[in-house]
Prior knowledge:
The protein has helices at residues 6-10, 12-18, 54-65, 79-90, 103-107, 121-133, 148-161, 175-185, 220-224, 250-253, 256-267, 361-371, 381-400, 406-412, 420-430, 434-442, and strands at residues 45-50, 69-75, 98-100, 114-117, 137-140, 165-167, 192-199, 275-281, 294-301, 304-311, 323-329, 332-336, 341-346, 351-356. It is of the alpha/beta class. It is globular and about 60 Å long.
Amino acid sequence: MPPITRRHFLADSLLAAAAAVALPANSALAAKKKNKPTKKSEHRLQVAIVGAGGRGGEHISAYLAHPDAEIAYVVEADEKIGQRRVEEIAKKQQRKPKFVRDLRKALEDKSLDIISTATPNHWHALCAIWSMQAGKDVYVEKPVSHNVSEGRRIVQVARKHHRICQAGTQCRSMRGTIEAIEYVQSGKIGQVKLAHGLCYKRRTSIGPKGHYEVPAQVDYNLWAGPSHMLPLTRPKFHYDWHWQREWGNGDMGNQGPHQMDIARWGLGADRLAQRVLCFGGRLGYEDAGDVANTEVALFAFGDKTLVFEVRGLVTDALRGANVGVIFYGSEGYVVMTSYTTGAAFDLQGNLVKPFKGDGDHFANFIDAVKARDPKILHAEILEGHLSCAHSHLANISYYLGKPATTAQIKRGLDDWKDRDDVADTLGERWNISRQTRWTWRRRR
């Protein structure tokens, strides 16, 4: 299992992405003040919700709750879902929003200020780019793109057209997470060279692969958009596209960007990793899914390492976390166990300090739009792109691999065995013997 260079498999995409490092990155630590209640302004920002399904409902609730926003459009390829959302919104705000299936119709409206998108992953980049080219500001869900190159293009367009673009990595606005990152970066747990991201989220079979009918109320041409218009091979049309590669990115690119973002943030890793290695598979069942439900990815940032795990089968919590991040320091460790809560511990496992508190990521976005200042954003698009790019890099490494035995995988990890922190983590979670870990150190 020889190492594969990024140049070999990303070429122009990563050369473009590397240019992003010259651009200023915005940190929530520099704009962490709690959003103050605002009075209703004379002009309410006009919002289009694009993709009104599950997560789209959260977008709707956020804008309905904000005094300076009004939902003017619902854009949805599924007419049944779209019309239902229109009626729900109409009951809660004075104006009934317009329903359209095609985003381009909404973009023709010059009074529209904001596009807020929670479409399937394959639509994120094109939706964001078209919208900013049309003079709109954009809130784009994670992953901000379906691949690395698309993400870099969103950053470029935001810069070119001077638009406000917020990534949907809302942990950046959560008080508990902000305080935990401050604690890690302050040196209170000593030197931190390892972050361990966890996505132990049970995912069951999505059903047998077959030939299924697209629901009659769905305009499949618009739903597919920039992707290939492939036959439907999964029983459930909505949501389960996450587990098919043409449209989704598995949990590495679904849940993963949240914890990847926290881990990268805490490490101060503001560049793409120099090395990436990922192994895994779709284990436990055979179904219509074709992405991994089990992945272990390693990222090298100079002398710092990020280990990220996706485990879709039943897995015990690690240090109290199922979906979270662990920062290992020379004098203690910090565990984030959710989007808003976590705690610091000493080396003996004694609680030192808890972290807790939520925030309003949408309100932060609206504040930046009103001020015309991207520096206010807690998750400016460059930050979102870099975090999601690492999820994509992990999947690229996995897709470029080939079937391997446990022994072959261990040999493939040779390049990482000179990192004591990684060896300890492998031993803790993967039950690698103490003798093997000692051998790794001896071979340095």
